[in-house]
Design goal:
2 copies of one chain form a homodimer. Chain A is built from 5 helices and 3 strands. The first copy, chain A, is of the alpha+beta class. In chain A, a hairpin with a 2-residue loop joins strand 2 and strand 3. The model of chain A has no long low-confidence stretch (mean pLDDT 91). Chains A and B meet through helix 1, helix 2, helix 3 and helix 5 of A and helix 1, helix 2, helix 3 and helix 5 of B. The structure holds a DNA duplex.
Chain lengths: 100, 100
DNA sequence: AAAATACATGAATATATGTTCATATATTTA
DNA sequence: TAAATATATGAACATATATTCATGTATTTT
């Protein structure tokens, strides 16, 4: 007698993907990633200017993405320069935008 | 004199991407998409069994993903069969999982 | 050293998302 | 037609995410 093979899913395998998706699922954040995706780092002021986002709010998003390992931050004088920590995120964003 | 070209971002262009990302950024939802990605539709019961998710909670996620245009639903007798509406989502999920 | 600039942080609040439980609805089966 | 099965929905609540505003801190400029 042939058993029907049940497909069981280990939800845990999606933990990390969901975690990153949550960290990116926001217009401001997608804008930041896009601005940083040309390899060049940008200061908070530059990002603010380009995205037209309130200083405090942008800072919140940047700090959080940094805490979640998506962005890097380097201080230089009065400025903080943000950049993308792992280039895979750019690839991912590319797919997302393409598939849409 | 050379002007520095400011890069302005139109956040609105990311609205749709962010909308879909939010709709997917959850372990249960990623599990559902994965289970449905083999072209075959599955009933709520089958999904429930495979994902090990409470009926009501799964229903909530399914209904929402359906409302957001990610899933289709077809009733047949006592069952409701869900499937992926737009195959691009699978491609997207593939990228996400790969890049990670 | 005081003022200005660039950014972060905390508190308060608003809004969105996820979860549970009880109950409703549709369909089939007995 | 009553009971069983499969799924949806509403209410209440918990938690997470986003937003605003005031203020703190580090650095530079005057």
């Amino acid at each position: 007698m042939l058993e029907i093979k049940e497909q069981k899913i280990d939800k845990a395998q999606f933990e990390e993907a969901a975690y990153i998706l949550k960290a990116l699922a926001n217009e401001t954040r997608l804008s930041v990633i896009t601005l940083l995706s040309d390899e060049k780092e940008k200061s908070v002021s530059e990002l603010m200017e380009a995205i037209d986002c309130e200083q405090s709010l942008l800072s919140y998003h940047l700090t959080d993405m940094r805490a979640k390992g998506i962005l890097n931050c380097r201080r230089s004088g009065k400025n903080c320069f943000y950049s993308i920590r792992n280039r895979r995120v750019i690839q991912m964003l590319g797919c997302i935008v393409d598939c849409n």
